[in-house]
Each structure stands twice: as structure tokens, then as C-alpha cells.
Amino acid sequence: MLLLVSFTTTRMAVCIAIIAKDNSPQYIAALDFEKELELQYRVHSALDVVDEKCAPGLKPSQDSRDLYLGLLYSTESHKIYGYITNTKIKFIIVIDSNSLLRENEVRSANLNHMSPEPEIK
């Protein structure tokens, strides 16, 4: 199974992760194999920020129905954004810091499922 994140500007994320409600990774994919371990570390670090943003009573100004968590944190090389579903499944998207994506483009990202073509024997 291959998942791609596409934006309206046709740029893609460098890493995407789907995290279960118990914070166990269900799917992590990175475009650059050599940076995969670093990107996994960034994803796991972002989970602490997700927990802070979703903690009850700490952020009354945030609409609890809003699935988009926004920018979780940024580094010199990456920006990490998050989404969370009503069932507490988390989507973490890592984008190159040099990317010119605006906040509303990240918010409207589409997650596309692309299945490989079945082999015909």
C-alpha cells in the first residue's frame, strides 16, 4: 500500500505517519530512505506536541471539532503538521522547510491511496 500526500501546488510531504490512539505507529513512509530514521524521530517527537494540544481543559479556545492541529513544531530542515480524528488516530505530515506551502494549503492536503497494479499471471 502506498499513501501519498498531495497539495494543491503538487508538492509532496517528505514523510507521512499514521499513528494509532495508543501512539503506536501504524504506517510511516519517507521519500528519502537515507533520512528515514531522522524523520521517524521527528514524527515521534511531534506526538508530545499533539498530546499537549489535545489535553482536556488546556486550550479552550481551540474548537474540539477541528481535526487540523496546525504546525506542531519546526526545525531548520522540516516543518511538522498534525491532524487528529475523532477516534484519536493521528496523521503527522513532515514537510521540507524550504517548501513555500502556506498554512491553508497544508490544511487542505489530500491523502490519496494508491494500490499497486495486481500482477497478472
UniProtKB/TrEMBL annotation:
<dbReference type="GO" id="GO:0048471">
    <property type="term" value="C:perinuclear region of cytoplasm"/>
</dbReference>
<protein>
    <submittedName>
        <fullName>Trafficking protein particle complex subunit 2-like protein</fullName>
    </submittedName>
</protein>
<dbReference type="InterPro" id="IPR006722">
    <property type="entry name" value="Sedlin"/>
</dbReference>
<dbReference type="Pfam" id="PF04628">
    <property type="entry name" value="Sedlin_N"/>
</dbReference>
<comment type="similarity">
    <text>Belongs to the TRAPP small subunits family. Sedlin subfamily.</text>
</comment>
<feature type="signal peptide">
    <location>
        <begin position="1"/>
        <end position="15"/>
    </location>
</feature>
<keyword id="KW-0931">ER-Golgi transport</keyword>
<keyword id="KW-0732">Signal</keyword>
<keyword id="KW-0813">Transport</keyword>
<dbReference type="GO" id="GO:0006888">
    <property type="term" value="P:endoplasmic reticulum to Golgi vesicle-mediated transport"/>
</dbReference>
<dbReference type="InterPro" id="IPR011012">
    <property type="entry name" value="Longin-like_dom_sf"/>
</dbReference>
